[in-house]
Amino acid sequence: MSKKLGLVLGSGGARGVAHVGFIKALEEADIKPQCISGSSAGSIVGASLAMGLTADEIMSGIKSLKVNEVLYGVPNFSRSGLFSTRGIHRKLNSFFKRKRISDLDIEFCCVATNLAKGESKTFTGRSFVVPSIVASSCIPALFEPEVIGGVQYIDGGVTLRLPIEAIRRFEPDVVVAVDVFAESGEITEYPNALSVLSRAIDIMDRNYTKAKTKEDTPDLLIAPELGNMSQYTFKELDFAFEQGYKAGTENIEKIKELIK
Question: Is 155 tagged catalytic?
Answer without folding.
Answer: yes
